[in-house]
Specification:
This protein is of the alpha+beta class. Helix content is 41%, strand content 15%. It is built from 28 helices and 21 strands. Strands 1, 2, 3, 4, 5 and 6 form a 6-stranded mixed sheet that branches. Strands 8-7-11-9-10 form a 5-stranded mixed sheet. It has a 4-stranded mixed sheet with strand order 13-15-14-16, covered by helices on one side. The radius of gyration is 34 Å and the shape is elongated.
Length: 720
């Protein structure tokens, strides 16, 4: 279906200005330059729309930009057969109607000159200044000749980085895509579908995040028409059939108008039709549509306080639907949106949704960051800066954009960036959590303590062992809510790493990329053996890799190649062998033995303190090693002593013993030391059916809420 022929935005277009015939304007443009004392006819409509928002705007620079754009694009045609200049004119008109300031419109007229003509960035900079040059460069595509298949994702990366410094870059890109989508009908169906999918996955979420609802809604309907033509036609038929002189919304709107007038509240009450995708969503949610589901009431007032006055009158004079009330004035959305949402029951039980906002809120709700004008212009009323700064404060302060700019630096591969970008933009809500130092973290809805740890500490979060949420100990998998206070807890062992399970709980790209990168650098930890993989969890960490020095009390990583060790071999094959209880060695610990009373050989871990004590009194060591399948293997498995360091809390001992039992380990003995500064040390001597289960057991114990470290015991032993 042609998006141009089935323009869903047309029925909902504002009636204050007729649709402009861009084909005629294109023919006018081809006639050549006009006299210097007036604007070219082709951009008079742009000038009119611009002056409606900015009465004192200087249009001289727009004329110069148009002359350069028209002359450089002269002779070029669009695939629709129109002169190419009609495209930058249409994009600029879209932005002018939204209220964009002059610099944005200038860059919009020139946005394709560097990409498609002989004009260079240096020329743009020389004639129009640094800001216009930056905006034009930001939306200029990278060449496929240089980047191949990576050209599209790398172009979006470039635009997003540029948007981080100036949000007007993305404003121009969104308007550019809207006009291209309006005229997409001349493309092959497969190309229409490809462009529509990128628009759906990337551009529409960006429009939502920047608050440009006017562009977002029309883009949604155009994508809907291309990707779901049958559902689109059904929705269009429903909207057409719903048009009736007896519109229930009209009746409710009249009642609301009289109610507010009687209360002495000056307000404008409008009926705001839903766009096609919105009607489709309501239909999927409710099944059968009601007569009031095809639109909403919009009440516009002068001041913030008037919004609450209107709300009070509506809830007093009508029956409110309390579950539909939302206050986005006291708590604005992350995309600048402010409004009161409610629903009231009108005559004969008809339910109408009502939006209440000021005129300024309405302008921002429609145009988002475009309505801010130049967000980086110095306020003349503001005190002058005492020190120059290279950083320009973005008044929108979008946390999502800051996060995106952070993680994209780590996603060096274009495919990883492209996939992660789509996943990130698919998360359409944001929460704010508080740090214990008074700062805040902006996170997507559904984020966990894993995400908070990486957002606050970066790669240091690899050593996270848990968190405190609202003062209570919590696992790293805990999902955070808006307004929570979170304190990630890090282990003192800086050599530890994340658990593979963290990827199941990470929602932010920064966390996922950091975790994936750690496992790429430590391949032995990325694919644990089946025997050790079942006990991993938030707060767990793999044993140190062979190339990394193991901290005291931690066993070196078990080799993943070759047969599993199954016994101990000493120099005297006839001597009885026993494992020392002070250090409880297990494969693949390095071993040293000593002959004790009765001729038996007691085998210690080489770093055991008892080894030093034996040597100091003159005992000769006995060579010992793990056998490769030919030594003795005890039917009772292996024994090990572990020390768990934790914060004190109720049921901690029960949770630890449950984790030990789940890992198929038997408790031989247990000691719990008295708490010291709310910290508790637990010492367990355990028997495992197989030494290979030790890493998994330690991970399971670290997974218990409140436990911040688990290590092998290092106790001095008697020298008898």
């Amino acid at each position: 279906m042609s998006a141009e022929a089935a323009d869903p935005g047309a029925p909902l277009r504002r009636r204050s200005r007729p649709r402009i015939d861009l084909r005629r304007l294109g023919r006018v443009a081809l006639r050549g330059p006009v006299s210097r004392d007036r604007l070219p006819d082709a951009i008079s409509h742009v000038a009119e729309a611009h002056r409606a928002h900015h009465p004192d705007a200087d249009l001289t620079i727009l004329r110069r930009a148009y002359v350069l754009a028209e002359s450089s694009h002269r002779g070029q045609m669009r695939k629709s057969g129109e002169p190419y200049i009609t495209h930058p004119l249409a994009v600029t008109l879209i932005l002018a109607e939204l209220g964009a300031e002059t610099t944005t419109l200038t860059a919009s007229l020139l946005h394709d000159t560097v990409e498609d003509t002989e004009v260079t960035l240096d020329q743009v900079k020389e004639q129009f200044g640094d800001e216009v040059c930056y905006l034009v460069d930001g939306v200029t595509k990278l060449e496929k000749v240089d980047y191949g298949a990576a050209a599209e994702p790398e172009t979006f990366r470039k635009m997003l980085v540029a948007t981080g410094n100036d949000v007007r870059v993305m404003s121009i890109k969104l308007a550019d895509r809207l006009h291209n989508m309006r005229t997409l009908g001349v493309m092959r169906p497969e190309k229409q579908a490809r462009i529509a999918k990128v628009t759906r996955d990337v551009l529409i979420p960006l429009a939502e995040r920047l608050g440009v609802q006017a562009l977002k809604t029309e883009l949604e309907d155009l994508v809907f028409a291309i990707l779901h033509p049958e559902e689109y036609e059904e929705t269009r038929a429903l909207i057409a059939a719903a048009k009736s002189p007896d519109d229930p919304l009209e009746t409710i709107a009249e009642n609301v108008t009289h109610t507010l007038r009687d209360a002495g509240i000056s307000a404008e009450v409008l009926i705001r039709p839903r766009h096609f995708v919105s009607v489709h969503r309501v239909r999927r949610k409710r099944g059968e549509l009601r007569g009031t589901d095809f639109g909403r009431l919009l009440v516009l007032v002068g001041e913030d306080a008037d919004c609450y006055a209107v709300l009070g009158e509506l809830h007093t004079c009508f029956t409110p639907v309390i579950s539909e009330f939302k206050d986005f004035i006291a708590a604005p959305k992350f995309n600048l949106y402010q409004s009161l949402h409610t629903a009231v029951v009108g005559p004969e039980g008809a339910v109408a949704e009502v939006l209440i906002r000021t005129h300024r809120m309405h302008k921002v709700a429609e145009a988002g960051v475009v309505a801010l004008g130049n967000p980086y212009a110095q306020d003349p009323a503001a005190p002058p800066q005492t020190e120059p700064s290279d950083e320009r404060a973005d008044p929108t302060r979008p946390g999502w954009l800051s996060r995106l700019l952070d993680w994209q630096e780590s996603a060096t591969d274009p495919d990883t960036f492209w996939t992660t970008l789509r996943d990130d933009l698919a998360q359409d809500r944001e929460i704010t959590v508080f740090r214990t130092d008074g700062g805040t973290l902006g996170l997507p809805a559904g984020a966990s303590c894993v995400d908070a740890a990486y957002a606050q500490y970066g790669d240091r979060a690899h050593t996270a062992i848990g968190a405190r949420v609202n003062g209570r100990l919590a696992t790293l998998s805990t999902v955070l809510s808006d307004g929570d206070t979170v304190q990630p807890l890090l282990a003192q062992d800086t050599a530890s790493g994340p658990s593979p399970d963290w990827l199941d709980h990470a929602r932010t790209p920064a966390a996922r990329i950091a975790i994936t990168g750690w496992f790429s650098d430590h391949p032995d930890e990325a694919k644990p053996d089946p025997e050790t993989a079942d006990a991993t969890g938030p707060g767990a960490q793999g044993e140190p890799s062979p190339e990394r020095e193991a901290p005291v009390g931690t066993a070196p990583a078990r080799s993943r190649s070759g047969p599993r060790p199954t016994g101990v071999v000493v120099d005297d094959p006839n001597a009885p062998v026993r494992l020392a209880g002070c250090c409880t060695p297990v494969p693949p610990d390095e071993l040293t033995g000593f002959v004790v009373r009765g001729g038996a050989v007691t085998v210690h871990r080489r770093e055991c303190p008892a080894v030093t004590a034996m040597q100091e009194i003159g005992r000769a060591p006995v060579a010992a090693r793990w056998a490769d399948g030919e030594g003795r293997e005890s039917d009772a498995g292996c024994r090990v002593t572990l020390v768990a360091e934790s914060f004190g809390r109720p049921r901690l001992l029960a949770d630890l013993t449950e984790a030990i039992a789940t890992a198929d380990a038997a408790i031989v003995s247990a000691t719990v030391e008295p708490p010291s500064e709310q910290r508790v040390r637990h010492t367990y001597t355990l028997r495992l059916p197989d030494a290979a289960g030790l890493p998994g057991l330690m991970r399971a114990m670290r997974d218990v809420a409140g436990v911040y470290d688990v290590s092998r015991a290092q106790h001095p032993a008697p020298t008898g």
